[in-house]
Structures are given as C-alpha cells and as structure tokens.
UniProtKB/TrEMBL annotation:
Pfam families: Acyltransferase
Listed EC numbers: 2.3.1.51
Any one GO cellular component localisation term in the record: plasma membrane
Protein's UniProt name: 1-acyl-sn-glycerol-3-phosphate acyltransferase
Keyword flag Transferase: yes
Enzyme category, top tier: transferase
Record-level GO BP terms: phosphatidic acid biosynthetic process
Phylogenetic lineage: Bacteria, Bacillati, Actinomycetota, Actinomycetes, Streptosporangiales
Originating species: Streptosporangium becharense
Alphabetized InterPro entries for the sequence: Plipid/glycerol_acylTrfase
UniProt GO MF annotations: 1-acylglycerol-3-phosphate O-acyltransferase activity
UniProt keywords, alphabetically: Acyltransferase, Transferase
Length: 245
C-alpha cells in the first residue's frame, strides 16, 4: 500500500517537472513473473524506472539502506520501502545465495523483479559487465527477462549530485522480452550463465546506446578513483618546486 501512496504523490510531480518519456511499454507483461534487467546510471533511476508501469516493481537493495539511525535512517527506510526495495545482504558468499532465494520468492509470487546486473551505478555513464546472478534467477525461476534502459538520467543527476538538473528529459526504454528456455536445466553451468548475462547486457547496450566496457563496474570505479588520486598527487608534486621558489 505504501508503494502506491508514494507513487500517487510523486508521479504527477515528476511528469510535470521533468516531462519523462517512455518507449516499449507494451513489452512488459501485464501479469505473471518477469525480470526487468536494467542499466544503472543515477540515483534518479529509482524515481523514473518504474514510473510508467501499472505493476509494482520490486528491487533488491543493500540492507544498509534500512539500518540507519535517527532522522536520516528513518527517511532512508521510508524512501526505499516506498520505491519497492527489499533489503538484502550483498556481502557475497552465503549472502549472495540468500539474495537469490529472495529473488526467486518474489518471482514465485508472480511479481516484477528489477535487477541491475552491473551491481552498482556507472561512475562515467558507460555500460559495464554484468554479474551472472540475473542469469541464475532467470533460469532457475524459468521467467523471461525484459531489458530496461534508462536514458539521460546520468546527465540529469550524475554521481555526487544531490539535486537533479532541470531541462534534461529522462527516458525509459523497455526492450523485447528475452527467452532463455533453451538453457533451462543448465543453471549450474558457468559458461551458460555468462552467455545469458552477456546476451542481456548486449540487449541493454543496443537499447541504451551506451558504450560497453568489458569489466565490472565496481573494479572500474576503484581504478578511476585511484587514477584521479595519482593525477592529483602528480599535479601537486609538479607545482611544489615552483611554489617554493
């Protein structure tokens, strides 16, 4: 109920202020379980991704969003509950299996499950290598996957931004459902999981128009941060002697 209350309040405001657009809405089944596999460009994705759908969209989010204290923690819990996020432990190992079980339960209930295969937001607007959890869910639950691409949200609200920019229209594209029934019963095969995941990421690349990078987003983000720090230190060292002279 809280989900629909939040959507009823936010939806008209977002439409009037940002004038979002959508393509391929009919590609999302009107009923029954389905996985929405999306790119993740911005915090704004939480607002616009499910805006045009009349079905509740459930996503899996890190448990940290729900464990904060004080007013900030309360607001975080309220927001992520309001946008349909279910808390999971994403620390790996047994936690990953728990996340898989949660996803399978949501799909078994006939609901819409949203997944970001990259695992984190893109730090530079490019599309990164997908993790194979989405493939395992699709094969074990035997459901279709609908590619779900956000457009312009990176430009509207890039990493570190607290307020979205006006004048940039965010868009949502839903691609044709991907059927992986030819792989059913092969969900323990790592090569199959990688093939399914790569097919999903290729569909997202085609849909979003993003440049694809064949490495994981988290690793690329660490590399970019390290390179920026090294460049900053080099610039500081270069200026040093002139400053002292």
């Amino acid at each position: 109920m809280f989900y629909w209350v939040v959507k009823a309040i936010l939806s008209p405001l977002l439409h009037v202020i940002f004038r979002p657009w959508v393509e391929g809405l009919d590609n999302v089944p009107k009923q029954g379980p389905v996985i929405l596999a999306g790119n993740h460009l911005s915090f704004a994705d939480h607002f616009f991704g499910a805006l045009f759908l009349r079905r509740k969209v459930i996503s899996l989010g890190k448990s940290d969003y729900f464990t904060g204290r004080g007013l900030k923690g309360m607001l975080s819990r309220a927001f992520f509950s309001g946008v349909g996020t279910v808390p999971i432990d994403r620390s790996g190992g047994k936690a990953s299996e728990a996340a898989l079980r949660t996803g399978k339960r949501i799909l078994a209930e006939g609901q819409v499950l949203a997944i970001y295969p990259e695992g984190t937001r893109s730090h530079d607007g490019r599309l990164y290598k997908g993790k194979t959890g989405v493939a395992r869910l699709a094969l074990e639950s035997r459901v279709q996957v609908v590619p779900w691409a956000m457009v312009n949200t990176f430009e509207m609200m890039p990493p570190g931004s607290l307020v979205p920019k006006l004048g940039i229209r965010p868009g949502v594209k839903f691609g044709k459902p991907l059927d992986f029934s030819r792989y059913y019963g092969m969900e323990e095969d790592r090569l199959v999981l990688r093939a399914v995941t790569d097919e999903i990421m290729y569909a997202l690349m085609e849909l979003s128009g993003q440049e694809y990078v064949d490495k994981y987003a988290a690793s690329a983000k660490v590399e970019a941060t390290r390179a920026a720090m090294e460049a900053k230190q080099t610039a500081k060292d270069t200026r040093g002697p002139r400053g002292r002279g």
